[in-house]
Specification:
Residues 10-84 form the Thioredoxin domain. By secondary structure, this protein is α/β, with parallel strands linked by helices. It is built from four helices and five strands, in the order E-H-E-H-E-H-E-E-H. The protein has one domain: 3-Layer(aba) Sandwich (Glutaredoxin), CATH 3.40.30.10.
């Protein structure tokens, strides 16, 4: 089974700095049905695309990250590349669509970190 790494505000920046290549961070909530669905979709994506690291942040446990990245709705996805913020990622919750959105976003220069 693919591994989605759970991180919190205390290890977030350190883990991302140590991650080479693209890393997708998605913010979830314990009572968020869409978040649970997205997690399953991301697990399916990881079965075929091992070149991406996926981190999960529970918004209820890490409010400082929610504030830092201006997360207003759940689930939310952020793309990092080689430890640096790249962009907010928007995609249909389908494995191939998310992977395509990641690849397309990496073709553009990174956005300014919030």
């Amino acid at each position: 089974m693919p591994i989605i790494l759970k991180i919190d505000e205390f290890i977030f920046h350190h883990n991302l700095q140590d991650t080479t290549g693209p890393a997708l961070v998605f913010f979830t909530g314990i009572h968020c049905g869409s978040c649970h669905h997205l997690r399953r979709v991301l697990e399916k994506m990881l079965e075929e695309h091992l070149d991406i690291t996926v981190f999960e942040v529970d918004a209820g446990i890490s409010p400082s990250l929610v504030n830092e990245y201006a997360i207003f709705h759940l689930p939310s996805m952020l793309l990092f590349n080689n430890g640096n913020f790249h962009c907010y990622l928007h995609s249909e919750p389908l494995p191939q669509k998310i992977y395509a959105a990641i690849q397309a976003a990496l073709q553009h220069p990174p956005e300014e970190e919030p």
